[in-house]
Amino acid sequence: MCDACLRMVPAEVREENGRVWLVRACREHGERRTLLSEHPAYYRDLNGFYFDVMRRGHRQRDFILRLTERCNLQCPICLAGANEDLLADFTVEDVRRLTRRMKGKKFDLMGCEPTVMPDLPAILRVIRESGNIAALHSNGVALADFDYARSLAEAGLDEVHLQFDGFDDDAYTVIRGEPQAAVKRQAFENLARLGIPVDLVMTILRGVNDGEIADVLDFGARHENVKEVFFLGCRMLGKAVGSFESAQLLPDQVIDLLAEATGRRISREQVRRFQKLYFAMLSIFGIRKCFYIQHYLLIRRGNGAYGTIDDHLDMVRLERVLERYRARRRAERRLAAPLFFCEALPVFLRPRALALAAEFAVLGTLMACGFNLKRVRRRSILLGYITACDPLIYDTDVAENCGKGEISRDLGVQEAGALANVLREHRWRRA
């Protein structure tokens, strides 16, 4: 997509002088270039593995439900364009109609800030009664009220993805427009008291809060209701366009920041090997997931300490098994998945790995049946290096396997949230 006119254009991923670029050719605006990676060997290896093992056409299991365009904050970086384009909120009856025809889904309740909706508890009850998973994405302002948080828990809330950008109010003032550290801590404490599993979502701006990455990770490791810590690089969407270009980050750059913050305890090589395992499991279970979202797995040791998956699994040996699986998938051999499990079994039967057999079994089951954080065992902490697709990095080949669809007032049902992002950006810019 040309980032100037937002038309779809021919493009290619190109390696030049030790960097990987997305190069687009627009008839009107000429060549447009976006940096994707400063680690070409890493990018080339994972990119090749991803497209060899992932198949297109899997049904979408996760949908962003964009409930409202309203918010109780005015974040300068708001990627969702809150309070700018006020469409009607979804109603309880709207959600009931959706859940009648959509079963076995995870609904990520987003939009701008769902807690501004008086009907949110009723919407949660509808989702729970339909047998789907209800995941709330929130800035935490309303959740700082314990009684309100409890009302959501009683209505059937499964998990919360909480904006948590660090502990420095000066950084919050830049990112969220006002001091927020105390509010975030109170919201988190309420969720912990209620036993609600949490994903800490840290939006990172270069030069603003990137120095707090390790502190947020350590905070998550100390609290057993934290099941995920996601590091979100700011991208050029919504209000961030035109103001924060110098602060934007891709997941590939966030991997470097976390490696540096942890003294290379979580290295790029470790992430690369684990990501191959993650892609392989996605392909076996037929799950859509974007190439731009990458992961790693930490293991709690108690007293706030954590280890890595590499402490328990021989990931070097497992990578050789994964490469054989890749070759079989590329050759479209029917027994690729059974042979992978047979060859990987000795790695998982080693004593250090057997100690985590229950953790691995639950994670595998969740991938197969729907990833509800409520079911994740206490020792597992999933790390995510993520970004929202914007017109600068939108790639139709990647978006075909977008891990989340979207349901909204303005765009209806979209199988790829990535496409919804850029279509909405197109509409906003034309307006």
Please describe what this structure looks like.
There is one protein chain. With 431 residues, the chain is of the alpha/beta class. The protein has a domain at 62-312 and 356-387: Alpha-Beta Barrel (TIM Barrel). It is 39% helix and 21% strand. It contains 15 helices and 14 strands. It has helices at 40-53, 92-101, 120-129, 146-155, 169-176, 181-194, 213-222, 251-261, 268-285, 315-330, 336-348, 351-354, 357-369, 396-399, 417-430, and strands at 11-16, 19-26, 30-37, 62-68, 106-111, 133-138, 159-163, 198-204, 226-233, 294-302, 305-308, 380-387, 405-408, 412-414. Strands 11-10-12-9-8-7-6-5-4-13-14 form an 11-stranded mixed sheet, with helices on both faces. A 3-stranded antiparallel sheet has the order 1-2-3, with no helix packed on it. A hairpin with a 3-residue loop joins strand 13 and strand 14. The radius of gyration is 21 Å and the shape is globular. The relative contact order is 0.13. The mean pLDDT is 94.
What are the SSEs and their pairings?
Elements (H helix, E strand, L loop, with lengths): L10 E6 L2 E8 L3 E8 L2 H14 L8 E7 L23 H10 L4 E6 L8 H10 L3 E6 L7 H10 L3 E5 L5 H8 L4 H14 L3 E7 L8 H10 L3 E8 L17 H11 L6 H18 L8 E9 L2 E4 L6 H16 L5 H13 L2 H4 L2 H13 L10 E8 L8 H4 L5 E4 L3 E3 L2 H14 L1
Parallel strand pairs: 4-5, 4-13, 5-6, 6-7, 7-8, 8-9, 9-12
Antiparallel strand pairs: 1-2, 2-3, 10-11, 10-12, 13-14
Helix pairs in contact: 1-9, 2-3, 3-4, 4-6, 9-10, 10-11
